[in-house]
Amino acid sequence: MTGPAPLALSAAAGALIGAAFFGGLWLTLRRLPGARRPGLLAAASYALRLGLAVAGFAAVSGGRWDRLAACLAGFVAARIAMARRLGPGREREAAPPCR
User: Fold this and answer.
1) How far apart are CA 24 and CA 89, in angstroms?
2) Phi, psi values for residue 87, rounded to 5°
3) At 10, phi and psi to the nearest 5?
4) Domain span at residue 58?
5) Domain count, the chain
6) Any domain includes 97
7) Could you tell me if residue 91 is inside a domain?
8) How confident is the model over 62-88, as pLDDT tens digits?
9) How far apart are CA 30 and CA 80, in angstroms?
10) For the whole model, what pTM was predicted?
11) Which residues of 9-30 are buried (b: 16+ CB within 10 A; e: fewer)?
12) pLDDT at position 92 over 60
């Protein structure tokens, strides 16, 4: 398929991959304070998120650099959107008070 449609789909897929990656990071960071083994939790979360992201990029790109670039752009856009939505100052409003 040629034209802008594959690139738009690649960017949308990248945004979904980014939302999953950074959503998983956010969930991991929320669980770290209460974890019995925080280092293991952080390492396992990173490995899982990285593996899924790399597999997603490979599947979406299909060996084409233009689709890979569009996927990366969607990934970065998801990062920016989630940082604005869940970034510093926002967790104080949504998080329960610490004991």
Assistant:
1) 19
2) -70, -170
3) -65, -40
4) 4-86
5) 1
6) no
7) no
8) 999 999 999 999 999 999 999 998 877
9) 19
10) 0.83
11) bbbebbbbbbbbbbebbeebee
12) no
